[in-house]
Specification:
heterodimer; A: alpha/beta; Alpha-Beta Plaits; Rossmann fold; 3 domains; 7-stranded parallel β-sheet; 5-stranded parallel β-sheet; B: alpha/beta; 9-stranded mixed β-sheet; two-stranded antiparallel ribbon; 7 helices; globular; binds flavin-adenine dinucleotide
Chain lengths: ~400, ~260
Amino acid sequence: MGILIDLDKCNGCGNCIEVCPFGLLELVDDKVQVKEGCNFCRACQEACTYDAILIEAAVEEVEVSDLHRGVWVFAEQRNGKIKGVAYELLSKGRELADTLNAELSAVCFGHNVAEASELTGYGADKVYLVDAPIIKGFEEDLYTAKFVELICQYRPEIVLAGATPMGRSFMPRVAARLRTGLTADCTGLEIDLGRRLLLQTRPTFGGNIMATIICSSKRPQMATVRPRVFKKNTPDKERKGQVIKLDFERGGITSKIKLLDFIEDLTERVKLEDTDIIVSGGRGLGKAENFHLLEELANVMGAALGSSRPPVDEGWIPYSHQVGQTGKTVCPKLYIACGISGAVQHLAGMQTSEIIIAINDDPNAPIFEVATYGIVGDLFKVVPMLIARLKGR
Amino acid sequence: MNIVVCLKQVPGTTEVKIDPQTNTLIREGILNILNPFDAYALEEGVRLKERCGGRVTAISMGPPQAEEMLREAISLGADEAVLLSDKAFAGADTLATSYTLARAIEKLGQTDLIICGRQTFDGDTGQVGPELAEMLGLPFVAYVSKIEDINKGMHLQRMVEEGHEIIELPLPAVITVVKEINVPRLPSLRGLAKAKSAPIPVWTAEELAIDMDKVGLKGSATRVVKVFSPQRVNRGEILQGEPEEQVKNLISKLGDAGIV
Ligand SMILES: Cc1cc2nc3c(=O)[nH]c(=O)nc-3n(C[C@H](O)[C@H](O)[C@H](O)COP(=O)(O)OP(=O)(O)OC[C@H]3O[C@@H](n4cnc5c(N)ncnc54)[C@H](O)[C@@H]3O)c2cc1C
């Protein structure tokens, strides 16, 4: 591999310097030079109008063959219910598959998953349903082995999965076994049709920077996406697809870990990801007891209770309520942030909500930058008024 | 019990900006620290050693200055540390990183437990732990929030969306831990003294007898092709007036939107 500048062709215009994501190009005596660290991403080559940049990438593309076709979505289920993120990914996957002129398939592991046939309504041409009692729960070792086997057999070019605790644990293992790339927590997916590449955009540095990532030399191209990042289409009940039932034959596949018990977190009666309204509190609440105020507001609105990280760290509310980079991603119709400053890590989990209301006494708090409606004021005054008025209706 | 903890040195802040002129990350003036999530991995390793005996080895793949962080790890209770550093390792994605770490762990000899943090502060993928387990062919559990019992195997709590699972894990194995698992200690005076003089061997690609096609940029399946600042559109309206008025106004807006 190497990058070469054809000095006869380079006229020193500098177009390439601006596009290098790593700032490795510089002008020396009116000609471009490359510093060490190039990863041959070709951004400069595309920007050069003089064909002056030569990139030799012998090892690339060797393993990429026409044999890999189609887009796959891993449809995660728990207790027989398919998670919302699967439908969101199928809606996005349909777009990608149409651009590639390829098939879209859903893959579902479980036992008696009645909803599996509904996956076609969201765009799947095929549903591979692996149905067996032993994979009823999340048997991670069995999932990993079986999914690798299916990918080797059917050779999709793209595999998408939800960035849920399950997806974030077992997809890296699948990718490592296949020795292919995996991009975590993507917020944007597009296709470069010329090279049949998936352009995967994700936040890094806690959401301060966005990066676009490709996997050019290995297949499949794999990505995880957080719940509620993509919109779910309304299902088309008429849409026909094929449900292909596959057996789970153990042959050699064993599970090394054993699931002994499950302790449910009972404080979370309403699921944050599935509600229309979330009332969320931050450090501005001051102490645990003050969450009662928000609870009251949540009750009159039929809302669920969310939180920024400090209240969780302080032990005012359990972790399952945390919204943000290291908590849940939510996208309700209405998100009410009370006493939350709006740090990027928090915004990462809620900024796609349809309507955002911020109640904060600091007019410069960054939360106002994403808020649809802002009230600059003391939450201990504003929230009780809000409750009183809503109750009076 | 032989325990290995995998640590990464990261920028001490995520408040990094992109230089609008060059479109690249401005890294100058940012101090490097031990990845905050890895502090819990290190602490858990040290606690297990205190409970069951054995050794804790801290390893890190990174540039030469990561040595500083490994000294910190020794001050916090690690018995020894190894730095994997080589120009050829630069530009590694999670696949190449986990491959390199795996070869180093094999070279260390018999290991019972490998502990990683749940994710890093900068890259934020959480993929190195599970990929490392595959590279070593070991069982794996992510998001461990408590180690309950150690006998033939371990009984652990794994954090999932709806609560906790109790899992039995045979050793040797790889786990990643969440911050709920412990409260990391501060360095001890003895630890600080030890950290100052401890030898920290640097293993290069040659010492690891590694397949050069599988490390660094060359061994990476993914490539970053563009970085940019996120766009935030300010669609907001600050409601004016006295609180009474603001609240009234707000409720009528929500009424218009069909929410209340
Ligand atoms: C790796 C990493 C991951 C993280 N992950 C997350 C995450 O998932 N989720 C998350 O939320 N954070 C996360 N954080 C933390 C994040 O950086 C912020 O520290 C956190 O979001 C701040 O929470 P806050 O807004 O509640 O508190 P603060 O920033 O302290 O803000 C409190 C706000 O309340 C206002 N206020 C105080 N009193 C009142 C009052 N009486 N009336 C009205 N307003 C009042 C103040 O003006 C202030 O704006 C993470 C950080 C790191 C480093």
